[in-house]
Amino acid sequence: xxxxxxxxxxxxxxxxxxxxxxxxxxxxxxxxxxxxxxxxxxxxxxxxxxxxxxxxxxxxxxxxxxxxxxxxxxxxxxxxxxxxxxxxxxxxxxxxxxxxxxxxxxxxxxxxxxxxxxxxxxxxxxxxxxxxxxxxxxxxxxxxxxxxxxxxxxxxxxxxxxxxxxxxxxxxxxxxxxxxxxxxxxxxxxxxxxxxxxxxxxxxxxxxxxxxxxxxxxxxxxxxxxxxxxxxxxxxxxxxxxxxxxxxxxxxxxx
Length: 255
Prior knowledge:
This protein is an all-alpha fold. The protein has helices at about 10-35, 45-75, 80-110, 120-130, 140-155, 185-200, 215-225, 230-245. α1 packs antiparallel against α2 (about 45-75), α1 runs parallel beside α8 (about 230-245) and α2 packs across α6 (about 185-200). The longest helix is centred in the first third of the chain and has 32 residues, at about 45-75. The termini are far apart. The model has no long low-confidence stretch (mean pLDDT about 90).
């Protein structure tokens, strides 16, 4: 029997909501360091690992969500054509990637040095498109994902004299960007997310027992944030910077 309505798994939204709070906190500290010149070490130590943990949750959940979305589409309509399915992910990926391009333009105008060439939205957008052929591989995604992580870690030990493959993970010498998430290793984390999505939510159903805490007020707040993660991601940085300006804590030379 096919499900006729869209069911959301509250725990996915909840985890994404936690990642949103972590992201906003880190970017607040980063902006205090970058724009207000507070002595906060955001590039190493605890806060660096905090930022990496935040990104890891986000990107892992991208893979989980893609697998759940694919299962849902198949569950609702088993006769959906492959071309139509691919177009769905192509449109979704291009939408997210387009927002990444807008961030590239905005950061180039306002920052110049360190502007975003291939940030997390670029990664997520391309990953949504690239992930489609992997959705049916199921358990192979774990091995391929781990290989991508290994290859990305290996490439990190080298620098190159060209820029055109920086999006893939070939980091140029003297390269600096305030937001850099190349496909290697990060696409590997998406594939691992797809693996766990297939393992834990096969056929658009939860394979494990979990009490429903979604009616609790605090949980609802986190789930709400998780459902609107893209919107929050897009507005939180301009909002934080505007508040720093308003309170006289930051000065930015635009030109």
